[in-house]
Design a protein that fits this description.
174 residues; alpha+beta; three-stranded antiparallel β-sheet; 20% strand; 57% helix; 5 helices; elongated
Length: 174
């Protein structure tokens, strides 16, 4: 195992999660940009998971495989569900029809005046007493175990889980 490469991919996943979060905040965000960053995040995260082995060295892989199996078996039910869901997301994104993330909208109410929102400055004009204008903002969600959750929240939990696994691996050094 090349730990430095695993750490590099972990840092890459962290960078991409920041980009996903930036896109999620934007009013009038670009759906394609969000999708590109999500796809890259899923791939970088899978590289972290895949880094727990030595290339072409089955003998050295035995203790690492045993450690990984034990680590995965020690995951809570919620962690295991997240861990498996994100693996399936990456497979779907790369090999099938794409990620299952859904795109919705939430409204941001803006009264008369100027409003600085992520993604731009908006001016609302109208007569006094006019009801607020509702500016649609895209939302990105995953449905895990029947519950709809923000994609950034899910990716953040997954990244934290991978960080913990890498730290445990470093401490154990199988």
């Amino acid at each position: 195992m090349v730990l430095s490469q695993v750490l590099k991919k972990l840092a890459e996943a962290c960078f991409l999660l920041d980009k996903i979060a930036e896109q999620e905040c934007l009013v009038l965000g670009e759906r394609e940009s969000f999708d590109y960053y999500l796809s890259a995040f899923l791939t970088a995260a899978m590289s972290v998971r895949g880094g727990f082995h030595y290339r072409q060295n089955p003998k050295r892989n035995q203790p690492i495989k045993a450690w990984r199996a034990q680590c995965e078996n020690n995951l809570s039910r919620q962690e295991r569900s997240l861990y498996e869901f994100m693996r399936e997301e990456r497979v779907a994104e790369v090999h099938h029809s794409g990620s299952s993330r859904s795109v919705g909208q939430e409204g941001i109410e803006c009264g008369i005046g100027e409003h600085r929102l992520p993604g731009g400055l908006f001016s609302v004009f109208g007569p006094p007493g006019m009801p607020p204008v509702v500016i649609p903002k895209p939302t990105y969600n995953f449905t895990i175990d029947g519950a709809e959750r923000r994609a950034t929240e899910v990716c953040g939990e997954y990244l934290a889980l991978l960080r913990r696994m890498v730290a445990e691996f470093e401490a154990a050094r199988p």
